[in-house]
Each structure stands twice: as structure tokens, then as C-alpha cells.
Write a structure and sequence with these properties.
The structure is a single chain. The chain is mostly beta strands. The protein has one domain (2-302, 360-704): Beta Barrel (Maltoporin, Chain A), CATH 2.40.170.20. The strands form 6 sheets. The protein has a 22-stranded antiparallel barrel. It has a 5-stranded mixed β-sheet with strand order 3-8-9-6-7. Strands 13-38-37 form a 3-stranded antiparallel β-sheet, with no helix packed on it. β11 (176-186) and β12 form a beta hairpin. The longest helix is centred in the first third of the chain and has 17 residues, at 2-18. Residues 43-148 form the TonB-dependent receptor plug domain. Keywords: Cell outer membrane, Membrane, Receptor, TonB box, Transmembrane, Transmembrane beta strand, Transport.
């Protein structure tokens, strides 16, 4: 609050110098966003920093995937491990992406069952994107829990504004993509149909020069339609389906087949919009169904797959580990000793076979479902005051014998209201909050208060305070992990199926992760030189964090973590001439924490510089630099991109484009997060991965009509 008052006082001090009553605010060419508060507003009225990535930026800078586009966001930390991306705003826990929400055309892709984003299986092609808005601030006050640090809002091309297109891409690393989009208008309905197939190459080798099995492949289709019912009413429909393959090198030791992930996800949404006087009402319904299959075959000693061993492990883990080490357990309870006697009797029955290896099938299959319905109303009370309110419910299930020993479900009620108030040309206030309740956590309220002071039509200071939450996932809260073993060969157990001896069950009772965020910033629009400048200074205090690494042998999630994030971010877009475009961003972050896991994705410095120059109607060049500094738990990242776009003169209206890519990465390696006992059961040689090619060349051809 002191920082907010300081900014307001500072702004008032210089208001008489910069502000003039002769200036017409309506003359300023504004840049509009909708993500921060779900109200269409200019960047100078936004309560927080927002990064806008347009379809032209994606094309001219040679960005070929949505995860790689996140490197254009100041403060966003991107890690690729060959089979998936981990993407977090301001980093922190690098084990998974669980503190950023991703929304595509109104559908959240956040997976509540495991608190993650399927970056390798997004149901949209980069070719269909109109723009990406990244709200770089905690956003639970607008989108509810699980938008703890930021929101990535992907907005695709509207059917009535799209066009037919076919494209293909291939690079020397083995990555490839094909894409087809068709557009049609039937009466008052516009339809867009897209299909997409891609493969992204993973890492080649471990540092021990062993082959590394990794890569991401997907096939998807997408249908989106808009129907103009009348001048004040519209219906929008979308259907997306994706089949994705995620090549996984290893889940456990002893594998004799690769534990690849096969994912089939379907997303459906329908939205009805109606304007009634000063009210704009929307009814949104969404449905998601996911089917994940991951199975493999591995071998282990028979003693590890006995039901008697698993029963003893649930009572006394140290007894089992003593037996596996060839020692005699002691010091337990009467019940422990009884279970030990039952196991010893079984071992006597098996004799030498108890130590012989048997091979089995096992899986980590998962079925997911989520259905939501939301009613919202945007109300223009006056020229100076607007509201948007939402009420709704969400129902989700997760079913897995491995992760939950069956099926789990959760009901959530939501209600929110956000407002924009402009008492004068000098001030804009954004005030709002989001309430939600479910049967795991109870009720949570996320408030936000922000004020923007306009020194002039082109220069604004802002300050905000917000509180946000991340609910514990179903797995963190209710996980009950065990592995049933099938097709045992040779089978010495005397049973049709076995069970891996180690099991884990969450103690439950977790609370939500919490953050109190303070931000002051400046936004300037230097129209005469085609430049925007945004500066953000922040202090985020995160507490109640689930900062333990959950694995089968240590299944004890607790809210014991905390960290304080402070820093500054600068972002600018420059387009002095129509044929020259430049974007750059740099971020400094200080992460103060006693929990190593909260630094497993942490760089003091991250940044980018991207530019494009158009020589004429046929030739264009673009390039960029993307970098992140190293830290105790992470490795430095440096990459240089260059691309050339060519439109052959024999094609009318430049409908055919050829684009040539070159990418140079001086040190194309990745270190897994270095934590104490991070992988006691894995070969540590596999922690470090590398690509053999530092330079990758590619070509993309696209035709539109």
C-alpha cells in the first residue's frame, strides 16, 4: 500500500507538467486487451502488465510452437526436457507447470487432478492463433484458484475472419508439421475447420553418450463456428480433439519397454451471447474428456511383487527395506510382526524363486472429465463505471487404479465480480474479487485493488495489490498410489496378478497455496516513434506452498513451503516504420527461499530481442535472441534464431510464402533439477541431456486462398 501511495503522489507531483486539458484522450490510438479483468480495456487502463503476442509476431519471428512463443514473455521461464515443457511465470517449482493457467477461447486447460498444463498436447495449432495475451500477475480475482502467478489467454482466429490455408514444415533435427484450414460461410453461420499433425524432436543423447528416447508427436482437428442469430444475439461453438504421443525415456529402473504416453483429449464448448440494453449476457458451457494411457513392461525380484510384501510395507516400511537388504527387521508392533511372519512364510514357500526376477506389465492410465457452466453479465452502468459478474459451477472427475485406486470427483461453485471505474481522466480503478467453494478446501476469496494514474493520454503509472490461490490437486489431496502387476512371467507368486510392494497415500488436509502480490508499473505509448514501453516492479510473497517432491517412496505432501519473489521487468515494442518491427523484454528476478525445490526453475536474468525487416513485397528477414542465466539448480540457456521469408512474384497477392529457418544453440543441453536425492532410483547419467546438433535448419511452405 505504501508503494501505491508513493506512485500516486509522484504522479500528482508531475501532473501539472505533463497533463494538459487540451489533450483529447479519445484521440490516442489504444491497444486493447481483455484478459486481466474480462473487460475490453486499453493497456493504459489495465491493472497489471500484459504481454501481447500477435500472429504477425509469431510468423515474422519464426516461432513454430506455442511453448516456444512463451519465450517472448518477460519473466516467463521455459524448460524443455525432450518429452514435455515446464513453463512457469517467475519459475519456482520446476518439476511441473502448476502455477500458471492456460485458456484457449474460453476453455481452461488447467488439469485439476494433477495441477498441470499439457503443453505437449495443446488442442490448437499455432497457425490458428490470432493473438496471445499473457496477464503477468496473479489472476485468481478474475479466473479463480489455479491462476496463481499468471494467465496465458490464447485467442484463435474467428471463423468469419479466417481464410483457407495449407502449410508444411520440416527441420534438420527431425521436427515436422503439416496443417490445413478450410473456411466456409453458410447463411448466417461461419465455420472454420482445421487439422494439424506435428512431431517435435527431443534430445539425442545423455552426457554418457547413451541414446535418449524422447520427442512429442500429435494429431488434432478443430471446428469453430459463429452464428449471428440477430443483430444482438450470437451463438459460438467449438470442438477440438487431439491424439498426442509423448516419448518417455524412463519411469523406473528395470524397464524393458519404453513407458510412452498416449493421450486422447476432446474439448467442446458452446457460448450464447445476448445484448439487452446496457447488459451483455453470456452463457458458456464447456466439456472436456481425457484418456491417458501409459503402460510398459519391467522386471524385478519376485519378493517385490508379493501381496504380503505390500501389506507389510503399509504397516512398517523399514521392515521391508531391512528384508530387501538381507537383514532381520525388529522393533515394530505386534501387528508389524504378524505381517512379517506372513511374508516370511510366503518366502519360505517360494524358496530361491523369491529372489529371481519376473517381468510384468504395469500402467499409469488415467481418465479425466470436466464440465462447466457459467453465466456472466457485462453491465455498462455509466460512461465511467462498468461491471462484469460471473456465476457458475464446475464438476470434474479423475479415474485411475494406479493414482487413485478408483474414481475421485469434485464439485466447485464460483462467483466473481470485477469493475472498472474512471472518476476522471486522471484515474482508473480496477476492483474485484472471485469466490469459490468446493468440498476439499471450503470457501476461498481472491480480491484485487488497482489504481492507474494517467499523467497524460500516453503515460500511465499503475499500482495494484492482489491475493491469489492455488488449490491442491486431487492427487496431492486424495492420491492413493499403487501398481497392479499383470502378465507375470515367470510367475512364482501363486496369484494371477501381483502388486508392487511400495504404495503411497496422501494424508489429505492440504490447504491452498497462497500469494500476496504487490506491483507498481509504468506504461507509455510513444505514438510518434511507434513505441510502447512497459515497466513492472513487483514483490510477491508466496506461502503455504506444497514444496515437497511427491514420489512413491515419499508420498507426504504438506504446506510447508514459502518464497519471496522480487524483481523488475521491462518490455517494449517498436515499429517506427511499417517494414521494421522490434520487440524486446528483460526480467530480473530474486527468489528468496529456504526450499530447494522452489528454485528448480530459476534464473536471475531472462530476456529476448526479436526483430523483423521487410525489404519489399517479396523478401523479409527476421531473427531473435532468447536467453536465461544459470543458477545453482538450473542451466543457462542461449539461442539465436534467423529466418527469411520469400513470396514468389508469380503468385498473385503473395498467397504463397516460403520461410527458411536457422537456429543456433551454443550449448544445446539440459540438466534435470539438481536436488538432494532427486532420483535415488535412477541412473544419474540420465539427468543431463544433449542434442548433437547445435545448428538446426528448417523450411516452411504455406499457401492461403
Amino acid at each position: 500500500m505504501k508503494r501505491m501511495l508513493l506512485v500516486i503522489s509522484f504522479s500528482q507531483l508531475f501532473a501539472n507538467i505533463v497533463y494538459s486539458n487540451d489533450l483529447d484522450y479519445e484521440d490516442l490510438e489504444v491497444i486493447n486487451v481483455i484478459t486481466p479483468v474480462k473487460l475490453k480495456q486499453s493497456l493504459k487502463d489495465s491493472p497489471n502488465a500484459v504481454t501481447i503476442i500477435t500472429k504477425d509476431m509469431l510468423n515474422l519471428y519464426g516461432i513454430t510452437s506455442i511453448p516456444e512463443a512463451m519465450r517472448l514473455v518477460p519473466g516467463m521461464q521455459v524448460t524443455y526436457r525432450g518429452s514435455n515443457y515446464t513453463i512457469n511465470y517467475h519459475g519456482t517449482n520446476g518439476i511441473q507447470s502448476r502455477r500458471v493457467n492456460v485458456i484457449i477461447d474460453g476453455i481452461s486447460l488447467y488439469r485439476y487432478d494433477f495441477a498441470t498444463i499439457p503443453w505437449h498436447a495443446l488442442p490448437v495449432s499455432i497457425n490458428d492463433i490470432s493473438r496471445i495475451e499473457v496477464s503477468r500477475s496473479p489472476a485468481s480475482s478474475t479466473y479463480g484458484a489455479n491462476s496463481l502467478l499468471a494467465v496465458v489467454n490464447i485467442i484463435t482466429l474467428r471463423p468469419e475472419k479466417s481464410f483457407n490455408k495449407i502449410s508444411t514444415f520440416y527441420d534438420s533435427n527431425g521436427s515436422k508439421e503439416t496443417f490445413l484450414r478450410l473456411q466456409k460461410k453458410v447463411n448466417n453461420t461461419s465455420i472454420r475447420l482445421s487439422t494439424h499433425s506435428s512431431y517435435q524432436h527431443g534430445f539425442d543423447k545423455t552426457f554418457a553418450n547413451e541414446d535418449y528416447h524422447s520427442g512429442i508427436g500429435s494429431k488434432s482437428f478443430n471446428i469453430r463456428s459463429t452464428t449471428d442469430i440477430n443483430s444482438e444475439s450470437m451463438f459460438e461453438f467449438s470442438l477440438s480433439h487431439i491424439n498426442a504421443t509423448n516419448k518417455i525415456h524412463e519411469v523406473e529402473s528395470g524397464e524393458i519397454t519404453n513407458p510412452d504416453i498416449e493421450r486422447k483429449d476432446t474439448y467442446i464448448s458452446g457460448k450464447w451471447s445476448q445484448t439487452i440494453g446496457d447488459h451483455h449476457v453470456q452463457l458458456l458451457g464447456t466439456y472436456f474428456n481425457g484418456d491417458l494411457e501409459q503402460d510398459w513392461r519391467s522386471c524385478r525380484p519376485t519378493i517385490m511383487m508379493l501381496h504380503e510384501t505390500a501389506a507389510l510395507y503399509k504397516l512398517n516400511q523399514s521392515y521391508v527395506f531391512s528384508l530387501l537388504k538381507g537383514k532381520t527387521p525388529s522393533g515394530g508392533t505386534v501387528e508389524d510382526d504378524a505381517a512379517l511372519s506372513a511374508l516370511q512364510a510366503k518366502l519360505s514357500e517360494l524358496g530361491p524363486n523369491a529372489k529371481l526376477d519376473s517381468c510384468t506389465d504395469l500402467n499409469q492410465d488415467l481418465q479425466e472429465m470436466r464440465a462447466t457452466i457459467e453465466l456472466s453479465d457485462t453491465y455498462q452502468y455509466s460512461e465511467n463505471l462498468r461491471f462484469v459478474g460471473t456465476i457458475g459451477t464446475r464438476f470434474e472427475t479423475a479415474e485411475s487404479d494406479t493414482y487413485f485406486s478408483g474414481k475421485q470427483s469434485l464439485n466447485t461453485f464460483i462467483a466473481s465480480i470485477n469493475s472498472e471505474y474512471k472518476p476522471s481522466k486522471l484515474f482508473t480503478f480496477n476492483i474485484g474479487g472471485f469466490y469459490e467453494r468446493n468440498n476439499d478446501i471450503g470457501g476461498l476469496f481472491s480480491p484485487r485493488f488497482a489504481v492507474n494514474y494517467h499523467l497524460s493520454p500516453s503515460h500511465t503509472f499503475r499500482a495494484s495489490v492482489t491475493k491469489s490461490f492455488r488449490n491442491p490437486s486431487l492427487f496431492e489431496q486424495r492420491g492413493n498410489r499403487s501398481y497392479t502387476l499383470y502378465n507375470i512371467e515367470p510367475n512364482y507368486t501363486g496369484r494371477e496378478t501381483g502388486i508392487f510392494f511400495a504404495t503411497g497415500q496422501s494424508p489429505g488436509g492440504l490447504e491452498a497455496e497462497k500469494i500476496i502480490s504487490q506491483e507498481i508499473g509504468y506504461f507509455g505509448h510513444y505514438k510518434e516513434i511507434g513505441t510502447t514501453l512497459d515497466i513492472k516492479i513487483f514483490k510477491d510473497r508466496l506461502y503455504n506452498l506444497q514444496s515437497t517432491k511427491i514420489d512413491l517412496f515419499n508420498f507426504n505432501p504438506i504446506n510447508n513451503g514459502s518464497t519471496e519473489l522480487t524483481g523488475i521487468e521491462v518490455e517494449s515494442g517498436i515499429q517506427v516504420y511499417d517494414n521494421l518491427m522490434l520487440n524486446f523484454g528483460i526480467a530480473y528476478l530474486d527468489n528468496s527461499t529456504d526450499f530447494d525445490i522452489e528454485k528448480t526453475q530459476y534464473s536471475h536474468w531472462t530476456g529476448f530481442l526479436a526483430t523483423s525487416y521487410k525489404f519489399n513485397s517479396q523478401w523479409q528477414v527476421g531473427g531473435g535472441y532468447y536467453g536465461a542465466s544459470n543458477d545453482d539448480h538450473t542451466q543457462a540457456y542461449n539461442r539465436y534464431d534467423f529466418n527469411i521469408g520469400y513470396h514468389p512474384s508469380f503468385m498473385k497477392s503473395n498467397n504463397l510464402e516460403l520461410r527458411f529457418f536457422a537456429q543456433y544453440q551454443p550449448n544445446p543441453r539440459h540438466d534435470y533439477p539438481r536436488l538432494p536425492n532427486f532420483a535415488a532410483s535412477r541412473d544419474k547419467r540420465n539427468f543431463k541431456l544433449e542434442n548433437q546438433d547445435k545448428t538446426v535448419l528448417g523450411i516452411k511452405a504455406s499457401l492461403r486462398w
